[in-house]
Structure formats: structure tokens, C-alpha cells
Design goal:
D-Amino Acid Oxidase, Chain A, domain 2, globular, six-stranded mixed β-sheet, binds flavin-adenine dinucleotide, alpha/beta, 12 helices, about 35% helix, single chain
Length: about 400
């Protein structure tokens, strides 16, 4: 008989794991929003799946997507000065999570994965550990369900470093070559412009990261889609004129009434395993590795850790799943989690002088520009550039 695994949560981590584990194990996913609620609900995030994540999606035979909005480049500006366009080695893709998650859930159900619709609370965990051989907490930023211990060194912040303001818009002429626009406004925050695919076709995501209580933090109290669109129009005019120039006034609107979001994250990194009544429980994704979205690594890190957890469980397929297995999973992920987290935390602070110099070099040297674009696809290189700079 196959060992039974329960995945709580059907977001990026839970779905990667369900695809990866479904052949070798009997997988049940418990989640608290139906396919209809996900598909027709509020956007949850922005999401850019870089090359390595797309290769993992391929490895686990996850659904393929229309590639009309492939992301080939990263455009970097500081203030209103465009510095350079760096080319990615492999194209990335951003698919609205409402579409991505709902489609994957339907596909997995057809492929034999069981789904239960239920909001799991802490008090349910013991029952789940009795029923299943392993419970995996993939509850994302609203989790974790269990007190996975905080890694203090990697969790320096007690308050959000940015307010996240996101809208999925129609009526913006894409930048060329098609890519992510990153505009840093020192001491105010950033704007990320991301081409994406939705149920309604291609859109442009405008994602403002405002430093709380500074001049870019202008969306407080905005509740409706109309107010949000109006505010985005005036905010781009005032702070991001290059984007504003590409807005076609008469077509500028959210792709649907739920296509906007405001949130703020307190990053926290946790050791991703513990035991409940002597049974191993592990965490994967944001429930245990939660970073600020400023570097766009959340989905990519969730995908990475899902693969490492899959490989751990396959290696220990016929052994008892105990703390040793949990420690093996943590050992496989720890270094990468550290690199992503430390780079991400550094990006929320004023850019160090040596990093500004690297960016200025990128403006003169295409090879350097391409290397900087690759920071987002391979955050280990960003970590190296940021930390080697501090030793200069
Ligand atoms: C504004 C914003 C922008 C972002 N931009 C990017 C980006 O550009 N690139 C990138 O890579 N990442 C980005 N991220 C991060 C990314 O969205 C997350 O890191 C990623 O979705 C985490 O996946 P996850 O599976 O851990 O959690 P989620 O995808 O959040 O999934 C959590 C799942 O758990 C379920 N759940 C939660 N609680 C319970 C419960 N009690 N019982 C049952 N089910 C439950 C939820 O319904 C959901 O299915 C962004 C995040 C935000 C907030």
C-alpha cells in the first residue's frame, strides 16, 4: 500500500508537491477555497516563474501555458533614469494564480489526487497526523498551522518593510523587449511592471512597493476598483512618468473588478519541521520561508523547496519519517533559503554604494546588465554580488 500524505494548501508549494508526489504516494490536498472561489476571486499575488521553476514544472509534468507573454528581459531604472535592459538566459512567465491554481486543481483531481474543502485549524493537526503518514503545511503567508521554530538570524524584521499595492491592468503598451520593469525610487519604494497571462488574456501588472509612511504610500483607504484605478493613474503620472506615457487613457482599466490587492508582509524564516505525537510534520513554501515580495522570489523558492522535499521523501521512501528526515530536508534547503532571504532583506534597505556602482556599470556594459538581470532568475548570484561588495 502507498504511504499517505496530506498537503494542507493548494498554492504554489502545495500544487508543486501534489504533482511531484502523486505517483509514489497516496496524496490528499486539503484547502479552504473552492475552484470557483479561486478562479472568480481576488488576485492573490504577482508571480514570475523564472527558468529554474519552469524546468521544475516541466519535470513534474505540470500544465503548460500559452507563451505569448514570455518575459525575456529586466529593465532597470533608478529615479526616472533608465539604466539598462538585461536579457535573461531563459524566459520567465507570469500566470495569474487564480488561473494557474484553479486549472492545476482540476487537472490533479482528474489525475486521481483527492481534494477536501475545509479550513484546517491547529486543533485538527493531531487528527490528521493519526490519519496520514505525513502532513505537509503549505498554508502560505496565513500559516503556519504549527509552531515551526523561527530562525532568528534570518528574521530581522518585526514590521513590514513595504506596502504591496498590485493591479492587473489593460491599456498599457508593453515595454520592449518584453520584460519586467524595475524602477527604484530611493527612499520611497519601487515599481515592478510585469507582463502576465490571465483568464482575460494578457495584462500588465503594476506592482508598487511603498516604504510605509513615505510619499509613495498613497493608497491608504482605497477600497473600490474605480478608486484604485484612479489612484494608480495619478501615482504613475507623479512618480513613474515613463510608464504613464505608455498608458492609453481610454483603455486603462483593471482586467476585472477583483484584479487589485493591497497587503504587507512581515518576513519570517522557520525551521521547516517538527513532530506532533512523535510524527513528523513539515512545512513548505511561505508557511515556513516567508520573504518580502520585493525580489519576486516567493513562488520560485516555494517551487525549489517543494522539489527538495520531494527528493528527500523519495530518498527515505521506505524508512520511518522522523526528525532525521526533517533535518535532511532542512539541510538541502537551508543554504538557498539563506541566500534568497539575505538578498531580499538587503533589497528592502537603501542600496549599498557598491551595488549602485554595479548598476551603473550595467548601464555601460551589456554583459554586466545581463548578469544583473540574472540576479532574479538565480538569486545565488545576487547574494554573491551583494555580499562580496560588503567586503570590498
Ligand atoms: C503582493 C505580492 C506579490 C508577490 N509577487 C511575487 C512575484 O512576483 N514572484 C514570486 O515568485 N512570488 C511573489 N510573491 C510570493 C508568492 O505569491 C508566494 O511566495 C507563493 O504563492 C507562496 O506559495 P505557497 O504555496 O507557500 O502559499 P500560497 O500560494 O499563498 O498558498 C497557500 C494555500 O494554503 C491555503 N490555506 C491557507 N490556510 C489554510 C487553512 N487554514 N486550511 C486550508 N487551506 C489553507 C490557501 O487557500 C492556499 O491554497 C508575491 C506575494 C505577494 C503578497
Amino acid at each position: 500500500m502507498k504511504r499517505r500524505i496530506c498537503i494542507v494548501g493548494s498554492g504554489t508549494a502545495g500544487l508543486h508537491l501534489a504533482y511531484a508526489l502523486k505517483e509514489e504516494f497516496d496524496v490528499t490536498v486539503i484547502h479552504h477555497r473552492s475552484v470557483d472561489q479561486i478562479r472568480n476571486g481576488r488576485i492573490m499575488s504577482t508571480q514570475v516563474h523564472f527558468g529554474a521553476t519552469r524546468r521544475r514544472e516541466n519535470r513534474f509534468a505540470m500544465p503548460k501555458w500559452d507563451e505569448q507573454a514570455l518575459i525575456e528581459s529586466i529593465h532597470i531604472s533608478i529615479g526616472n533614469q533608465k539604466l539598462f535592459t538585461g536579457m535573461l538566459k531563459e524566459p520567465a512567465l507570469s500566470v495569474d494564480q487564480r488561473l494557474y491554481f484553479s486549472h492545476c486543481i482540476e487537472d490533479l483531481a482528474e489525475k486521481g489526487v483527492s481534494f477536501r474543502l475545509k479550513k484546517v485549524v491547529k486543533e485538527n493537526i493531531e487528527t490528521l497526523t493519526d490519519e496520514f503518514d505525513l502532513v505537509i503545511d503549505c498554508t502560505g503567508k496565513s500559516g503556519p498551522l504549527m509552531p515551526f521554530p523561527i530562525e532568528e538570524e534570518l528574521s530581522p524584521f518585526q514590521t513590514p518593510q513595504r506596502k504591496c499595492i498590485v493591479g492587473y491592468f489593460l491599456g498599457i503598451k508593453p515595454n520592449t523587449p518584453q520584460g519586467i520593469g524595475v524602477t527604484v525610487l530611493p527612499e520611497l519604494g519601487e515599481m515592478f511592471e510585469i507582463p502576465a497571462i490571465t483568464e482575460h488574456g494578457p495584462v500588465t501588472i503594476l506592482f508598487i512597493m511603498a516604504i510605509p509612511n513615505r510619499n509613495l504610500d498613497v493608497f491608504q483607504g482605497i477600497k473600490t476598483a474605480e478608486e484604485f484605478t484612479l489612484k494608480m493613474r495619478t501615482a504613475t503620472q507623479k512618480f513613474f512618468p515613463e510608464i504613464h506615457k505608455r498608458i492609453a487613457e481610454e483603455k486603462f482599466s483593471l482586467c476585472d473588478e477583483h484584479g487589485f490587492l493591497q497587503t504587507a508582509i512581515i518576513p519570517a524564516i522557520r525551521k521547516p519541521y517538527l513532530t506532533v505525537k512523535n510524527k513528523l510534520v513539515v512545512g513548505c513554501g511561505d508557511s515556513v520561508f516567508l520573504n518580502d515580495p520585493i525580489t519576486g522570489q516567493g513562488c520560485n523558492l516555494s517551487s525549489y523547496c517543494a522539489e527538495k522535499l520531494y527528493e528527500t521523501l523519495i530518498e527515505f521512501k521506505d524508512s520511518t519519517w522522523n526528525t532525521q528526515v526533517g533535518e535532511s530536508y532542512w539541510n538541502r534547503t537551508k543554504q538557498f533559503v539563506k541566500e534568497v532571504t539575505e538578498w531580499t532583506n538587503a533589497m528592502t534597505l537603501p542600496l549599498p554604494e557598491h551595488v549602485i556602482q554595479l548598476l551603473l556599470q550595467g548601464a555601460k556594459d551589456q554583459a554586466k546588465a545581463d548578469e544583473i538581470a540574472e540576479w532574479f532568475a538565480d538569486p545565488r548570484t545576487a547574494y554573491q554580488d551583494f555580499s562580496s561588495a560588503t567586503t570590498i
